[in-house]
Amino acid sequence: MLRYAVLLSAFVLPCAFAAAPDPALVHARTLLKSAILIDGHNDLPWEIREDPKTPMDLEGYDLRGHAPNETDIPRLKQGQVRGQFWSVFVPGELKEGFARTQLEQLDLARRMIARYPEAMELALTAADVRRIAAKGKVASLIGMEGGHVIENSLGALRTYYDLGARYMTLTHNVTLDWADAALGEPRHHGLTPFGKEVVREMNRLGMLADISHVSADVMRQVLDVSAAPVIFSHSSALALVDHPRNVPDDVLRRMQANGGVVMVSFVPPFVNRANRAWHVELDKRVKGAPPGTDPKQIVEEFTRQHGPEPQATLKDVADHIDYVAKVAGHDHIGVAGDYCAGAVPVGLEDVSKYPDLFAELIRRGWSDADLKKLAGDNVLRAMAQAEQVAKRLQKERPPSIATIGALDGKK
Length: 411
Ligand SMILES: [Zn+2]
Known about the structure:
By secondary structure, the protein is an alpha/beta fold. It has 18 helices and 9 strands.
């Protein structure tokens, strides 16, 4: 009997497990071989900096094996990622040392890229991305997250460009002297005159203005000022989930004239309404708690009363992609996992999962041509356009020596 069972399993089990491959997934994997899949935002450099065991240590945080968190080389390969904007995030809440921390993160990201020459290469232009991706490596771009790091200095902005930064998210979650953050205090009703000069100087350099994280007023004013395409490096659709980090319809509709790209984020509270509502209630509870209450205790009690955090799924992300494609157009959309930054949706647990997302869109009727645009062609077009604008502007005007004091009357 036993022998029979063993024999039977030898024949039956492999067949039982080898279920027919999902045709949409096979299609997605084939398509991604000839596409350039570029993700807009991954916080791996901050995870390496903050690693509890070996902080800031690239030897300790090895990407060739199974690394902690959601990103490493084997999983990037499985996910068919060919381009990545590595975020050199610096928290806006630091009391001091914005520039120093930014320089350290730029150094860390550049050392990380250099450490794996078989798998990564620094990319500074759209042409670099195409060349590096063609070699089967991850074209590694650098994006700065939070304009506080320029410390109100256009000289600092230019130096960051020289060190490789190719986008700057104008704010993170804290309002700056020159721009309001989506989750910060509304102080300026958008950009100040110096804030507008920052955008113009980014145009002259060829650094993409990233308007994720800024207030809706800032989004609109950047679109008024910018001579080059903008990006949202990680935001989703406000009409589907009412979160201030998401993009309103009027701004989505302006992507066409601007040439910009909304790289749709996977962040659970941005893509799932029930998840967002749960967090709103929890935040109220946290804010209303007596000072000194253990936040863990608040979450535990809240979960007992309201149930666990509702899960966002891959389908929610696909809904946002469908919506942004409908309102902004298929030429103005990209993807941004925002991995290594916190929670992830079911079905998109790590960087190996992008093909599953493309398979879902194939099931929803997306054409190969539109999927290639979504994967990376759109953002490459925006980059190339921004490079052309920069070439023209560099002939027209010198580097700006404007100061926040002269433009905004601040020191
Ligand atoms: Zn962010």
